[in-house]
Design brief:
Order of helices and strands: EEEEEEHEHEEEHEE
Shape: globular
Distance between the termini: 72 Å
Oligomer: single chain
Largest sheet: 7 strands, mixed
Strand order of the largest sheet: 8-9-7-10-6-11-12
Helix content: under 10%
Radius of gyration: 25 Å
Length: 185
């Protein structure tokens, strides 16, 4: 004779989710098996209307499900030996040459898992001119955290990097991996 066990789970909201597993065998007797505590999962956020900046540099209202906000520091460098030390040879960390027309940035190690080297792009307020975006092409020092480093390439690049200073912004990451920067007040 086959003894089929049927399992049902009832879930109760009591500050945390409680699962009460009960079972019954083919004879119809109900037996309490085990009480299981399941941590309460945070409610998935509703979509919000945000104004991102398009590749053309124009405000673009979009619907997004924001999954993370990371406070970042935006710093600047030029490809000289003063800014880059022994790596100041005019090349990115992957060996590609830095071009005078480049709008690109470097990421600290903790942010690198979020973007694809050579592909991911951001519009960086105060850095990109209208109609341009910056491409992730370089890496920062391993000791830095939550840092985006923009490269200055034209004119007095080193002086422009010094004048940029340090800017605080928020990197916003949406459920579909879209990303944008917001200036902090």
């Amino acid at each position: 004779m086959k003894n089929n066990m049927m399992l049902t789970v009832s879930i109760f909201f009591l500050g945390t989710l409680i699962g009460l597993a009960t079972g019954s065998c083919s004879c119809g007797n109900r037996t309490e098996i085990e009480e299981v505590a399941i941590p309460l999962v945070e409610k998935v956020p509703d979509p919000i209307m945000v104004t991102a900046t398009t590749a053309a540099g124009a405000p673009d209202p979009i619907m997004a499900i924001l999954v993370e906000r990371i406070d970042v520091e935006i710093t600047a460098y030029c490809p000289c030996a003063v800014c880059c030390g022994e790596w100041g040879d005019g090349n990115y960390s992957n060996g590609d040459p830095v071009l005078l027309t480049d709008y690109s940035f470097a990421l600290s190690p903790d942010l690198q898992k979020r973007m694809v080297l050579g592909e991911s792009q951001l519009f960086i307020p105060g850095y990109n001119r209208e109609g341009t975006v910056s491409t992730y092409r370089d890496t920062t020092s391993k000791r830095l955290r939550s840092t985006i480093d923009v490269i200055m390439t034209v004119g007095e690049a080193h002086q422009r990097a010094l004048e940029w200073g340090r800017k605080q912004m928020t990197l916003c990451i949406a459920e579909d991996d879209d990303m944008w920067l917001e200036a902090q007040p």
